[in-house]
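A further point concerns the way the authors explain their paired sequence and structure data. An entry of this sort, consisting of the sequence and the corresponding backbone structure tokens, reads as follows:
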Amino acid sequence: MAKYLAQIVVVGVQVVGRAFARALRQEFAASQAAAEARGRAGKQSAAASSFTGMTVQEAQQILNVSTLKPEEIQTNYEHLFKVNDKAAGGSFYLQSKVVRAKERLDEELQIQKQDPLEQKQQQQT
């Protein structure tokens, strides 16, 4: 009886292991396909997100902007930076998050300036 139970456990572990490996390969292939579909600007943006540790969406949420308009970003940045100043009773941590969010959005604006043709293609899709 113990022999059969051990065989069932071994077979079950093998089945789960194969299923996990197959799912991992599929996920890797899907992420590769998505990266290729985003194109060069998408790769640069993903690299910037990886380097800064902050996505564009997160930076937009921190600065409370819905679009990448430099004037709106600068206005919200200045306001949030002043409000979170340590001398005014603010938080240095929040102030640094505001600075990093502005840096991330500035990087994204630079990436978009580098490849305006691709930006138009992304807007059409």
